[in-house]
Amino acid sequence: MTDFFEEGALCGVLTTQPLDRLLDYRAPEGGCATGAFVEVPLGPRKVLGVVWGPGRGDYDSSKIRPVGRVLDAPPMRAEMRAFLERAGAYTLTPLTAMLRLATRAPGLGDPPSMRKVYRLGTGVPPRMTDARRRVLEEAGALGGLALTLGELAEAAGVTPSVVKGLVTSGAILEEQSPRDTAFPRLDPSHGGKTLTEDQAAGAETLRAGQRAGAYQTVLLKGVTGSGKTEVYLEAVAEALRQGRQALVLLPEIALTAEFLTRVEARFGARPAEWHSGVTLTERRRVWKMVAEGQAQMVIGARSALFLPFRSLGLIVVDEEHDTSYKQEDGVLYNARDMAVLRASMLDAQVVLASATPSLESWANAEAGKYDKLVLSSRFGAAVMPQMRAIDMRGEDLPGARWISPTLAQAVTQRLEAGEQAMLFLNRRGYAPVTLCRACGQQVGCDHCDARMVEHRFLKRLICHQCGESKPVPTKCPSCGVEDKLAAVGPGVERMAEEAAALFPEARIAVLSSDLFGTARELKAQIEAIAQGAADIIIGTQLVAKGHNFPALTLVGVIDADLGLQGSDLRAAERTFQLMRQVAGRAGRAERPGEALLQSFQPEHPVIRAILGGDEEAFWAAELDERRAAGMPPFGRLAGVILSSTDVQQVFDLGNHLARQDGALRAVGAQVYGPAPAPIARVRGRHRVRLLVKAPKGAPLQPALSDWAGQVRLKGDLRMAIDIDPQSFF
Ligand code: ADP
Ligand code: ZN
Fold first, then answer.
1. Is 234 in the pocket of ligand 1 (CB under 6 A)?
2. Is the CB of 225 under 6 A from ligand 1?
3. What 3-state DSSP class applies to 229?
4. Which residues lie below 8 Å from residue 614, measured CB to CB, with a gap of 6+?
5. Which three-class secondary structure state does DSSP give residue 119?
6. Which residues surround ligand 2, an ion (CB under 5 A)?
7. Which listed site, 241, 350, 568, 611, has its alpha carbon 20 to 30 Å from 597?
8. pLDDT, tens digit, for every residue of 511-527?
9. Does residue 451's CB lie within 6 angstroms of at least one atom of ligand 1?
């Protein structure tokens, strides 16, 4: 294959426009190489693209236009192009959409952007003030290093105008400097901890894998607090020594603050960050520095997998079982699986870390596809908390109250001992249902088949499906009767109210994703709580994810049965993981912890498995059930969601597809449905789903493309295909 196109030669360019094919252009003056980022004319516009290969030459050659310009960005490597192709084929995503994922940094080809920086000069200001003196002292202490206006002003504790005022006399110099600067070097030998025997053995296995420089996936399993992070940081250290880059994926942005501090302590400098909370200019810097090898380590959300690493040697997927790794809109991919794919194409190592691995990873380790490392005890004095069920059938609890006397007493004891307690309820808002006591109707969303959830802090009803919100009405929207609307059931905000009544002296903090405007506010709140700013923490599943609260010794689960309802394939697995994860929050430091699970069915096998802690038995039983049903990982699934504003139209299409299933049957796959999706209407669109089930080795994706390709989507019909669906809504 040609790798370079001389001026005028025909090349095929992949753009980020939804066109579903390569477009032919002529190479510009000076030619262009395969992989080059280019700007090409498309109709009246100029769009971003990548030279993908030779042109097809099937277009009227007199109409073929030249490439506008080759951008000043590192070309996309062959390995990255192959990864996008394979990931796209796996998820049935058009390549153009894959390219959008890989170019989520604005102004990639712009000339280096500059910013003003300030450092100490030799001039003398005509008039000296305290504030001015502080600026000059700070600037002097930097030894010639330049800071931005904001940074220098903040360091000196003055307003920016004070710094500006020193520029005229030359006491402070104002200069231009490129914005996209290299990240500070990380030192692999800076600050390692002395590892326990278990940990050291695990670290050595990972290091040996790094040195081998071959593809390998390791499941690193260990209870919360056993030192998994310490162990995989040693794999990062080895990757750095080998001159390769490392990527650590975290499931939750709010976890990055604490993690960055740990990385800095270990390697002496901060790594690059990549997630939705990072500014656009910083994203561009990260993208470029990653491509140039000037960012050795990236901490990021799942989309960091599509960064243009120059030499990636390690991908860590922390809390690998976490459902947020599955992208649920746009491109439907599972970051854990894509990490394994990318690593296998790069001879890199993957570390999947979790206290409660996903059933898939557990099965892959059992089957010998993944290596397995187990850390069996918590570090130091910390032990796993005692877990007990509170049988709610025997508790004396008035209506509209959810904290049982037994749990309340346990909380009181912890508070008296000066420790923290957590109440866990996986429900945002004040109450899940608003009911009219006059007509019996529940307040629903106008656009979705969903109830509106009352959020009392915001004084609004919110639809958790589409985000629509309205003020809490005083009149029933159905019957019009005044003052008869009642909140039914608990949400975290209501728990906070109940806790405040039960424990009037306690400082109560609610952690729920909707209560914080920005990731930064949430981070700050979590840090404050870790420092002891609250006695009782009330939270949704946000609190289950890896935060470290040293004084927390009691976790009370308000409704352990919540996740067991519903028909989801993964309901048991999810509940098991979530409960173990939440319980793992208690007793991380020297003080032993306790977890109390309020349940109306303590004899349920999942609740018993959680309490008994016999994980192997739980996984084995789950696996047997899946095997018997031919479900993943023993079979393959694809979810198909059809939607339209016209209900008849979606069902007609669903029925048509279900009948025309030849392409699927040819590979041994079966279609189930159409059926109304569990949430049958979202944003005014009716939703119908089909489920495709295939034997394990079946070539499902090509069959699905053929099958779906038989129909043309007319009007506002949409079809989304979800390979390996994680949830079924
Ligand atoms: P995990 O990732 O399994 O939850 P961490 O790596 O976060 O566990 O370890 C839990 C706590 O114990 C952290 O504060 C960590 O710094 C500390 N820790 C773990 N191992 C060691 C060690 N060998 N020496 C000192 N501190 C350790
Ligand atoms: Zn809605």
1. no
2. yes
3. helix
4. none
5. strand
6. 445, 447-448, 463, 465-466, 468
7. 568
8. 877 766 666 777 788 88
9. no
